[in-house]
Amino acid sequence: MQEALLKVEGLKTYFYLDDKKIAKAVDDIQFTIHPGETVALVGESGSGKSITSLSIMQLINKPGRIEKGTILFNGQDLVKLSEKEMAKVRGNDLAMIFQEPMTALNPVFTIGNQIMETLIKHKKLTKMQAHKKAIELLKMVGFPRAEETINEYPHQLSGGMRQRAMIAIAMSCDPKLLIADEPTTALDVTIQAQILDLMNEMKQKFNTAILLITHDLGVVAEYADRVMVMYGGQIVEDTTVEQLFSDPKHPYTTGLLESLPSIDKEVKRLGAIKGTVPPSHSFPSGCRFSDRCPNVMEQCQQALPQLLSIETGHKVRCYLYD
């Protein structure tokens, strides 16, 4: 197998709250992503998915900080880089599509300006070259009138077109890794499919690895190669998409899958996981899922289980398999 493009080891990202509480938003996670691979990170809101992506991009602001761990990208530990060094990586080899394009795009600059800025900074193109390249990128992501759109502002575009513009900016420097944080949130279903197909085309064309953050298991089944299930700031299951849907191991993963409607069987009521994700400053002392788990045992409430490899390519954090 190819050497990992991204290797995260023992990452802990904590937020220090005013009342002296510590919110352990990401707590000791490890995973790898290889070139050309699409890895999905799934879980409920508040499970730590977005904080994981922002940690990789080194965009954690006070009162949060990366407490511990390494983020090896292309052989460099991003945690040890200065902001100036990180600025050379961010937007160049490592790019991100944010959840809400209206807040991620700058409202006072044209779409063309925002694409050209990246090209001039990282690719050292002249203004004229960057302008030409920006039009090419807009055409590549499906803008029918790219020559006019380049002079328009974000508020003049629809949600789907703004998201396409975000992809154009993210792909402008042919990144080795693209982080997509719920890239289809608030878009209608047909536009969602177009955006995801577009990202897939970019992946095929440039061999770009993708970290796809989503809570939509349908999207995972269609587009991902591998999936990591996150709960309470930790990865509780890491496996291939085929294994996840055919043979889920962690009770939380099983609960998520049981909450999905199926065309194969008729049920009166969909399954539901009782309770909610606990706040990241007051997790249970044992397994983070213990107070919601239908299979809870005494040891689950006493000590935190480790993420163990139970078969080739399948890891799970649960005492049922210890």
Short synopsis of the structure:
The protein is α/β, with parallel strands linked by helices and 322 residues long. Helices cover 31% and strands 23% of the residues. It has a domain of 175 residues: 3-Layer(aba) Sandwich (Rossmann fold), CATH 3.40.50.300.
Query: Cα-atom Rg, whole angstroms?
Result: 21 Å
Strand order of the largest sheet: 6-7-8-3-9-10-12-11
Please identify the structural class as seen in this structure.
alpha/beta
Helix content: 25-40%
Structure description:
It is a single chain. With 322 residues, the chain is of the alpha/beta class. The chain has a domain at 6-84 and 219-314: P-loop containing nucleotide triphosphate hydrolases (Rossmann fold). 31% of the residues lie in helices and 23% in strands. The protein has an eight-stranded mixed sheet with strand order 6-7-8-3-9-10-12-11, with helices on both faces. The protein has a four-stranded antiparallel sheet with strand order 2-1-4-5, covered by helices on one side. Helix 4 crosses helix 5, helix 5 packs across helix 7 and helix 7 (159-171) runs parallel beside helix 8.
